[in-house]
Amino acid sequence: MTSDARTEIPTQLDTVAAATTLLLDAASGLTDADLIEASLLPGWTRGHVLTHLSRNADSLVNLLLWARTGIETPQYASAFLRDADIEAGAPRAMREQFEDLTASAERWLALARVMPAESWQAIVRNRQGGELPASRVLWMRLLEVQIHHVDLNVGYTPQDWPAPFVARLLPQAIGDLSAKEGPGFTVTATDTGYTGTVGTPETEITGPAPALAAWLIGRSSGADLTGTLPDLADWK
């Protein structure tokens, strides 16, 4: 690992920790009644979102242990058990949810902060089977915390995402779509100047970078964007 990469790891960890603190602060104000209300994710209550965040932290502990020990530890035992754990945990009382959310986040951060430098280079696999260096797990956790904070529907919106997060998320979302097939388009961020293209452009879509990113990852209808928006469900 280069000296620059070693410097980046603590910075990335601090970024995840700060985002986690904001999430926990927001969650601390929820009540039992709030948890059974719908989140912004179809079919999920706020209880589902909080439980998923807790189990995601534990799943990423598995990947860090894999990287540190060399013993293969899948992110989740199976897709069925992942989904079953979320369904089982969603109806819990807020006190239990919050304690779980806090403890799981602390377990992951504590392990990440004592990872040997060389372990961040180890190759692990995500739940879809894709291979990645363990250092990528930091970004995986930040994505979960930032995006699902919005999904909780507690007043935190894509416009609240930090600029460095959006600057990384937006091209990733473009890249993810580019790996599929569907109607092409170009996006241009009116606030940052970023431009990205998916496929063979047939239309241009403009708007603030957070709004573009939210639409591309399915967290917005795109009503706050300008241009003819293709149906992202057409991308396969």
Order of helices and strands: HHHHHEEHHEEEH
In whole angstroms, the N-to-C terminal distance is 36 Å
Count the DSSP helices.
Answer: 8
Strand order of the largest sheet: 4-3-5
Strand content: 5-15%
State the helical fraction.
Answer: 40-55%
- The average pLDDT value, as a whole number, equals 95
Briefly, what CATH class of the largest domain? Mainly Alpha
CATH topology of the largest domain: Four Helix Bundle (Hemerythrin (Met), subunit A)
Shape: globular
**Strand count, sense and closure of the main sheet?**
3 strands, mixed
Structural class by helix and strand composition: mainly alpha
How many beta-strand segments? 5
* CATH architecture group name of the largest domain: Up-down Bundle
| Poorly predicted regions | none
Total number of distinct structural domains: 2
Query: What is the CATH superfamily label of the largest domain?
Result: dinb family like domain
Radius of gyration equals: 18 Å
Top keywords for this entry?
236 residues, mainly alpha, Four Helix Bundle (Hemerythrin (Met), subunit A), Nonspecific Lipid-transfer Protein, Chain A, 2 domains, three-stranded mixed sheet, two-stranded antiparallel ribbon, 5 strands, 53% helix, 10% strand, globular
